[in-house]
Amino acid sequence: MLSQKILTYLQDEPTLLPENRDSYLSFLRKKGFKENSAFFQLATTYGTEFNGSEGFMFNVVRDLMDETVTGVNYNMHTIEKVPKNLISLLEDTTYAFLLYDKDNDSVILVEDAGVEKVLAGDYDRKWNTFNEFPEEFFDIDSSDIN
Q1: What is the pLDDT of residue 55?
Q2: DSSP states of 56-92 as a string?
Q3: Which pTM was predicted?
Q4: What pLDDT shows up at residue 141?
Q5: Cα-based distances in Å from 108 to 12, 15, 23, 24, 119
Q6: Cα(38)–Cα(52) distance, rounded to whole angstroms?
Q7: What is the top-level taxon of the source organism (predicted)?
Q8: How far apart are the C-alpha atoms of 118 and 126, rounded to whole Å?
Q9: CB atoms within 10 A of CB 123
């Protein structure tokens, strides 16, 4: 689950409408996402995109639901053959991959959009849990939440 520090930071962000939340919950459950993960909580609570230190984090669930060529994750998994456990958090993978690993709850950054690096398991930065990632992405400082 998201840490209290992150929840406090996000307290003024818009939340999903109940019907969208129900749809997102159902979709992520069907796709095998872990309900007790911080990613699951963020994705099924907040209905906005975020701008942060590693770029523009878009509405990931809405993108995952888009199983057409317009979907970032669809293209990444179908055309570029990136393993399906790696989920793009960025709308634009031209310059970098910021990927959530739904199997182990980590986040990796692969700069220079090197899909070959992704496929080889090579990355430039790793956050061991999704909960670690937002603190840096949002540049949360303890003084920001007092």
Answers
A1: 81
A2: EE--HHHHHH--STT-HHHHHHHTS---TTEEE-BS-
A3: 0.91
A4: 78
A5: 27, 26, 27, 23, 12
A6: 17
A7: Bacteria
A8: 12
A9: 17
